[in-house]
Design a protein that fits this description.
single chain; globular; 13 helices; 2 domains; 2% strand; two-stranded antiparallel ribbon; 76% helix; mainly alpha
């Protein structure tokens, strides 16, 4: 087991080094940082001094190793746009993104699992087929289209939900939340629904497929032959045995929700990390772009590593199969 964990940690480290290399190449390919940071009054000597202070005159390898070392300590430099530390900017926006992703994940589980059970139990009936058809539409529609439609219906036409912003927030130490205020909860509804729609359809279809597979298994047939009530077979046996893939997919898709929340945050002007990244792209704020790439990749790699190790703990056959 120790060897398996060490292998997974080594693989995760190699992936992060590769991501750091790509992020570093963004620094190199996007242009001269001195020209971006300099103003019209700076002389050539001042620009050379700034370039030397940033370490841009060092070799490629030296700059890359310095970047990796600083990133490992959480130091991504200074934002070109506003002159503040990049980590501080991301820390300010991180609670908004995580709050949105958390609510979207809960919505996807609370809605997706019952719908999956319903379509599996009542397969072939009109309402189950209608839900299947709607799920195809949910998978096919881009999230920005869903967001715009939600704003049009619930904000412009009905006027029952705010179209942008986060509402009033409460600071709990370094963490800020809108869940404790009415305006914060109201502002969270539409972007959370928009972000969770794709996840809802995935979970619904996965639960349906897994439940139909379990219902055809031998132990379910044996339970029916013994006269076990249908509801007990469906909810205590079938549903319980199909939840593991759902939990795994949800845990692994949390990173995807964080990464792709930038579209939802842009549509609803949600002040999260995604919105910060879009602003960084607009103003060519390279340190923020590189930091966002590294942090999102770290979340992805961490979640995948944790899931792999958890699987190996649950099923010992996986440890031996990877040797």
């Amino acid at each position: 087991m120790l060897v398996f964990i060490l292998k997974r940690l080594f693989n995760a480290a190699m992936v992060m080094l590769a991501v750091a290399f790509l992020a570093f190449l963004i620094f190199r390919a996007a242009g001269d940082p001195v020209e971006i940071m300099a103003n019209d009054q700076m002389s050539i000597e001042d620009k050379e001094a700034l370039r030397d202070s940033l370490g841009l005159n060092d070799s490629f390898v030296t700059q890359y190793l310095r970047f990796v070392g600083n990133a490992a300590r959480g130091d991504f430099g200074i934002s070109y746009r506003n002159g503040q530390k990049v980590l501080g900017l991301i820390a300010d926006r991180f609670p908004a993104t995580m709050e949105l992703v958390l609510v979207a994940t809960i919505l996807s589980l609370v809605i997706g699992i019952p719908l999956g059970v319903l379509t599996a139990i009542h397969r072939g009936r009109w309402h189950a087929e209608a839900l299947q058809f709607v799920s195809i539409i949910g998978v096919s529609l881009p999230s920005f289209v869903v967001g715009i439609l939600l704003i049009l219906v619930f904000s412009v036409i009905l006027g029952i939900a705010p179209a942008f912003g986060r509402g009033e927030v409460v600071d709990l130490g370094w963490w800020s939340t809108g869940l404790l205020t009415p305006s914060g909860r109201a502002a969270l509804v539409l972007p959370a629904i928009s972000l969770s729609l794709y996840q809802i359809t995935l979970i619904m279809r996965l639960v349906r497929a897994e439940m139909m597979e379990v219902m055809r298994s031998d132990f379910v047939k044996f339970a029916r032959a013994r006269g076990v009530p249908r509801w007990r077979i469906q909810f205590r046996h079938a549903l319980k045995n199909c939840l593991m893939p759902v939990i795994t997919m949800t845990a692994m898709n949390v990173g995807a929700l964080i990464a792709f929340a930038l579209i939802t945050e842009t549509v609803f002007q949600w002040p999260g990390m995604g919105m910060l990244f879009i602003q960084a792209v607009t103003f060519l704020d390279i340190p923020v772009m590189a930091a966002y790439l590294c942090i999102i990749s770290f979340i992805f790699v961490t979640l995948n590593t944790v899931v792999d190790i958890a699987y190996a703990v649950i099923d010992p056959r996986l440890r031996h199969a990877t040797r």
